[in-house]
Amino acid sequence: MNRVKTIKVLIIVVIFCGGVLWGVSHFKISSYVKEWIKNKGIPTIDFKFLDGKENIVPMLVLGSGPASLSAALYGSRSGIKTVVLRGNQPGGQLTGTSYIENWPGIKKFRGAELMTDFEEQVSSFGATMLSDAAESVDLSSWPYRVKTEEGHEFYALSLMIGTGATPRRLGIPGDSDYWGKGVTTCAICDAPYFKGDKVVVIGGGDSAMEEALELSPYAKTVDVLVRGTTLRASESMIGRVKECTNIFIHYNKALSEIKGDGMHVTSTMVKDTVTGAEEEWPVRGVFLAIGHIPNTQLFKGVIDVDDAGYIKIKDRHQLTNWPGVAVAGDVADSYYRQAGVAAGDGIKAGLDLVWWLTSIGYNSSVQTKLEPFFFDPKAVEKRKMEEIDSLTECDQLIADSKGKLLMLDFFTPYCPSCMSMIPIIEWTAAKFGDKVVFCKVDASLAYDLVKKFKVPDVPHMIFIKDGVIIDRLKNTMNRADFYEFIKKRIG
Ligand code: NDP
């Protein structure tokens, strides 16, 4: 064999062995899970098998929107130890919704208020709420292993997936460059910052109408661009939009580019979807309301999804194709996508998991025996940030934090990106506790502080050293980047 042939053979052997090894590790399914899937039935579990495993959670809930919290409510109220990983947008999409008028039994309320009450109700039945998010989920052996962004590792006996959906982006030139600098998905958070400006809203569904209505009292004009010839929004929403004299709906119009001066959006290129003609519109704000993408990345290749990527459920139940794994809410619902439906399905998911645990022999005496191995919430440090809302408190804080880095985090409870930063800031606060003072300021209450620090919109973080502002941060960041950002500023 000449040298070239030998090398070729070697490459084929290496690829073959790699493939076999990948296959073996990828399909390493424990005998319990194998038996469940094969028999579509229940082996009785010998719970002794779990002795010595730490951080066991009988019902682990991923997400904290209405679906997740309803499941947690039914789990914890049934006496099952339940832990909720609140995720990177605590409260889910409802925290960014204005008034809700179609929740059965209550005429009108704010989404964020509902989610706060909801968490309190769930906690009152003993569920643990953790400001943390799942980073990886291993369903290849039971109990299921879930690793979190904060570095915890849980062994879940049953799992509820309520990871929701993320707003879709346009992906056109300028979309990423001007994200948070005029391009946004949250009018309820940002509308007051567009006083007297021209803005565009993209989309023709209820979300687009809601964004336009929220912007109408502030903006000079609100142009809603619909790529087709029809609206998907409900008649009642369209009716309310038609009552506003500064909202204009344009059909067959789409954005092809977002332009700016590096700091903020200044104009958009608007394309006629029929003729292809383009023109430049001067605008300050671009509000995207073009639907959502289900958050299923953690379960890819294991949990069955439909053609549109939404997790499939079985029959009338909320169980997935995987034993002891239920799902509810927008991650599994491409059709109704209503908070009330998510809550109802969450109740079904909670009950399905309670019954599933019972069917494998889990009961109160098993729970008592396993108790020493349960996840102990006390192990997670309490690290609430300070909060101020007056100039006097601020002056005192600046004086007290001399020699340290002081961070003022301007937020509003109705701003999802603000709320998503809070667990990350609290986690970082625990790491740098002695060197940095982290403090929250609710911009909707502390008007004097907003004026003093010239805060243009939220989220907005201001970094102060010895009374002098040394930096400002407008964008949200992931855990690792924010940690590095703070580390650099400590010097
Ligand atoms: P929808 O899917 O209903 O609407 C999305 C809109 O965005 C459609 O007009 C769609 O156009 C358009 N679109 C999608 N992709 C693009 C793109 N790349 N460029 C331009 N336009 C695009 O989503 P919503 O978020 O509005 O609503 C989701 C669900 O939530 C619905 O069931 C709705 O009723 C509900 N909801 C209820 C509210 C309330 O009652 N207060 C408030 C908000 C939402 P096309 O039609 O051509 O596909």
Structural class: alpha/beta
CATH fold-level label of the largest domain? FAD/NAD(P)-binding domain
Number of strands: 24
CATH class of the largest domain: Alpha Beta
Name of the CATH superfamily of the largest domain = FAD/NAD(P)-binding domain
What proportion strand?
Answer: 15-25%
| Oligomeric state, counting identical vs distinct chains | single chain
Radius of gyration, in Å, reads 25 Å
Describe the overall structure:
With 491 residues, the protein is α/β, with parallel strands linked by helices. The chain folds into three domains: 42-166 and 293-379, FAD/NAD(P)-binding domain, CATH 3.50.50; 183-290, 3-Layer(bba) Sandwich (FAD/NAD(P)-binding domain), CATH 3.50.50.60; 386-490, Glutaredoxin (3-Layer(aba) Sandwich), CATH 3.40.30. Helix content is 31%, strand content 23%. It contains 13 helices and 24 strands. The protein has helices at 3-26, 31-39, 66-77, 111-124, 187-190, 206-215, 235-242, 339-359, 364-370, 391-400, 416-431, 447-452, 479-490; strands spanning 56-62, 82-85, 99-100, 109-110, 128-130, 134-138, 144-148, 153-161, 165-167, 183-184, 198-202, 221-225, 247-250, 253-260, 265-272, 278-282, 285-288, 292-294, 325-327, 386-387, 405-411, 436-442, 460-465, 468-473. The strands form six sheets. Strands 1, 2, 5, 6, 7, 8 and 19 form a seven-stranded mixed beta sheet that branches. Strands 10-17-11-12-13 form a five-stranded parallel beta sheet, with helices on one face. β11 (198-202), α6 and β12 (221-225) form a beta-alpha-beta unit. α3 packs parallel to α4. The longest helix is centred in the N-terminal third of the chain and has 24 residues, at 3-26. The N and C termini lie far apart (61 Å). Mean pLDDT is 89; it is low at 20-27. The structure holds NADPH dihydro-nicotinamide-adenine-dinucleotide phosphate. NADPH dihydro-nicotinamide-adenine-dinucleotide phosphate (NDP) binds next to α6.
